[in-house]
Amino acid sequence: MQSKIQLRTAMWNNLAGSIRCPFCEEAAEAEEGAIVCRRGHRFDMAKKGQLFMLRRPASGGYDDELFAARQRVIRAGFYGPMHEALEPLLPEHGLVVDAGCGEGSHLIMLRDRKTFSGIGIDNAKPGIEQAAAADSRLMWVTGDITSMPLNDQAVDVLLNVFSPASYQEFKRVTGEDGLVVKAVPGPRYLQEIRQLTGEKSHSSQEVEEGFFTAFPNGTVQHLQADWRVPPERTADVMRMTPLTWKHRGMLNETEGPDKLTLDVRLLLSKPL
């Protein structure tokens, strides 16, 4: 039986010709348990098969508790309508990258629906560690989405879900034939939690303007759904979002909302 490192090495080998060093941009290839570039930069795989490709560790950010709670909520089905909308956009047997993947749950759920090669990239090491532990079918990288370890036009679909973006880099790795899909929250997204915390409704107008400046021919798909929160996921709903961070200690996590609103706008880089 192959180890996770052997499995991941084989996956990276399948991307031969598509990999480059994120530091020097030279061509790179997979060796047993590592990615090595022509200039000698070497990125060893950790025990679970994930790669660390940051020049220095990222500071701050999300913690293990938030990632674990988010993972359970996603697996329970809250984002199911979004995954259903994304499924037909994904290629069979192509390369899908989730830039800013967190703990990787969206990419994992999409991989359950369709067969593709997938890479999740995030600068949060705890998130990538959880992703690698949860799924061995995909490749996971602690890295910088502004400098991804992929050649020009290597990616068929790039996902950017509720995460900061780097449109210049996204354009580089997808080229004219690839598709960039950015998910941003609509005004009613998690409105039940906002009501509990007193947070104002979120506007994604500025983010959308930035996207369509980068992709003038882009389009929008808007979806909304209500989700009945299972009692065993109530505390997770309260822990999975930064909306509650500054209110911890003041909120009773066992008395969270029994219903949650999904309101998402999918920004597509080109019409389909």
From TrEMBL:
UniProt keyword annotation of Methyltransferase present: yes
GO biological process terms held by the UniProt record: methylation
Annotated binding of S-adenosyl-L-methionine, by residue: Y79, E103, G104, Y189
Residues involved in Zn(2+) binding: C21, C24, C37, H41
GO terms, molecular function: metal ion binding; methyltransferase activity
Gene3D superfamilies: Vaccinia Virus protein VP39
Acetylation as UniProt keyword: no
Domain 23S rRNA (guanine(745)-N(1))-methyltransferase N-terminal intervals: 20-51
Keywords per UniProt: Metal-binding, Methyltransferase, S-adenosyl-L-methionine, Transferase, Zinc
Boundaries of every Methyltransferase domain copy: 96-165
Protein name from the UniProt record: Methyltransferase domain-containing protein
